[in-house]
Write a structure and sequence with these properties.
The chain is α/β, with parallel strands linked by helices. It has two domains: about 120 residues, Up-down Bundle (Four Helix Bundle (Hemerythrin (Met), subunit A)), CATH 1.20.120; about 220 residues, 3-Layer(aba) Sandwich (Rossmann fold). The protein contains eleven helices and 16 strands. The strands form four sheets. The chain has a seven-stranded mixed sheet, with helices on both faces. Helix 2 packs parallel to helix 4, helix 2 packs antiparallel against helix 5 and helix 3 runs antiparallel to helix 4. It is globular. 5-S-methyl-1-O-phosphono-5-thio-D-ribulose binds next to helix 2 and strand 9.
C-alpha cells in the first residue's frame, strides 16, 4: 500500500469530471489543490511547474488533451491542442510520449467519440504509471539489498523523483519507500537542487511526511559526503534517456555521477520505459531547457512572520545563465532501474529493455 496518507499528485473526480493537481510551486509552505478547468490551465500548470517531473508532465498533458477534445473534438483542435501542450516544456520526453499515445488513440475515431476515448487513455496512463513506479520500487529494492550495508543505508538523491513527480511512489524514491516499508534503516541525503530547490522543497517534504529520515545538504557538498564514505549509493530519476544510455536529468546530476565514480559509489537511475527516447542516439541530441535567469537571481521563502516572499540574491544588473538539465554519460551509470528490471546503461542494455512487453 502507498504510504503517503494516500496523497497523490493528480486526481480525477469521476462525479464532477474534474482534474485536480497539487500546486507544487507553493510547496513546502502551502498544500493547495488546483482545479484544471481549461486547455490553457493545463498548459499553464506544466509550463509554470505547478506540475513537474517527467512522468507527471506526460500524464497531465494526456488529461489536458482529453479536456481540449471535450470542448471541441475536431481534427483541427486535436492538432492545435497537441501542439500547444507539446510546447510547454522541451526536455522531458514523457510529454511527447503521452501526447502521441492519446492523439494516436483518437485520431481515426469519429469526432463524437474522441473525448471519451482520450479520457479513458489518460486514466489508463495514470493507472499504468502507478503500477510501473511500484515495480521500479521493487527492482530498486533488490539493488539496495544487494549493497549489503550493515546499519543505516545512506542514499543520496537529487531534485525530486518521488510521488510528486509521478502519481504515486515516484521513480528514484520508490525503492526508498519500499526499503523503509520493509524495515531497512534508510537515510536520504537530499541535495537542495538549486536554483528551484526541488530537493529541499519537494523531496524533503515528501520524505518527512512519510517518516523517512532525511537530511538536506547543499548541492556543492555532495562530493565531500561521498569522499567521507557517508553515501552508499546515489539514486536519481531521468527526464529523457537516450538509446545509448546517456541520461538527461536535473542540472547537477552529472557532477554527482562524476563524484560517485571517483569514490566508488554506485550511481543508479530509476525511470519508466516511457522516459527512453529511442529516436535519440545519444545525450548530445537531447534538448536542454534554458529557464529564466530570475530563478537563479531570486529566491522564494517564508519569513519570520509566516509570509511567503521572493527576495533578490544578486547585485542589481547581474547576469545569470540557467540550463535546467544536464547529461550524464552512460559509462557513469551503474544501472538503469525500470519497471521491467535493471539494465546496463548501454545500447545493448537498452536493446534488451526495448524487447520487454
Ligand atoms: O524541472 P523538473 O522539476 O520537472 O525536473 C524534474 C527532474 O529532473 C526529475 O528528476 C525527473 O523528471 C525524474 S521524475 C520521476
Amino acid at each position: 500500500m502507498f504510504s503517503n496518507d494516500n496523497l497523490c499528485s493528480l486526481r480525477w473526480d469521476p462525479v464532477s469530471r474534474a482534474v485536480e493537481i497539487i500546486d507544487q510551486t507553493l510547496l513546502p509552505h502551502t498544500l493547495r489543490w488546483c482545479h484544471l478547468d481549461s486547455p490553457a490551465a493545463f498548459c499553464h500548470a506544466i509550463s509554470s511547474m505547478q506540475v513537474r517531473g517527467a512522468p507527471l508532465i506526460g500524464i497531465t498533458a494526456a488529461f489536458g488533451l482529453a479536456h481540449a477534445l471535450a470542448e471541441d473534438a475536431s481534427t483541427e483542435n486535436l492538432e492545435r491542442a497537441t501542439a500547444a501542450l507539446l510546447a510547454t516544456r522541451p526536455t522531458a520526453v514523457n510529454l511527447r510520449w503521452a501526447l502521441q499515445l492519446v492523439a494516436g488513440t483518437v485520431r481515426e475515431l469519429e469526432p463524437a467519440r474522441r473525448a471519451e476515448a482520450a479520457l479513458d487513455k489518460a486514466l489508463a496512463l495514470r493507472g499504468e504509471d502507478i503500477a510501473n513506479c511500484a515495480r521500479i520500487g521493487e527492482h530498486g529494492l533488490q539493488l539496495l539489498r544487494a549493497l549489503q550495508v550493515e546499519g543505516t543505508l545512506n542514499i543520496m538523491t537529487h531534485c525530486n523523483a518521488g510521488w510528486l513527480a509521478t502519481i504515486e511512489w515516484g521513480t528514484a524514491l520508490a525503492p526508498v519507500y519500499k526499503a523503509f516499508a520493509a524495515g531497512i534503516p534508510v537515510h536520504v541525503w537530499v541535495s537542495e537542487t538549486r536554483p528551484r530547490n526541488q530537493g529541499m522543497n519537494l523531496t524533503a517534504w515528501e520524505l518527512q511526511r512519510a517518516g523517512v529520515p532525511c537530511t538536506i545538504v547543499a548541492d556543492n557538498s555532495c562530493g565531500q559526503l561521498m569522499r567521507e564514505g557517508l553515501v552508499d549509493c546515489v539514486m536519481v530519476g531521468s527526464d529523457r534517456t537516450a538509446a545509448n544510455g546517456d541520461v538527461c536529468n536535473k542540472v547537477g546530476t552529472y557532477l554527482k555521477a562524476l563524484a560517485a565514480r571517483a569514490n566508488n559509489v554506485p550511481f543508479y537511475v530509476a525511470l519508466p520505459k516511457s522516459t527512453i527516447d529511442w529516436s535519440c542516439a545519444s545525450g548530445a541530441l537531447i534538448p536542454i531547457e534554458e529557464r529564466d535567469a530570475a530563478e537563479i537571481l531570486t529566491i522564494v521563502g517564508m519569513d519570520a512572520a509566516g509570509e511567503v516572499r521572493e527576495v533578490n540574491l544578486a547585485a542589481p544588473g547581474s547576469r545569470a545563465l540557467n540550463p535546467a538539465f544536464d547529461i550524464t554519460p552512460a559509462q557513469l551509470v551503474s544501472a538503469l532501474v525500470t519497471e521491467h528490471g535493471s539494465f546496463a546503461a548501454s545500447a545493448d542494455g537498452l536493446a534488451h529493455l526495448k524487447m520487454t512487453k
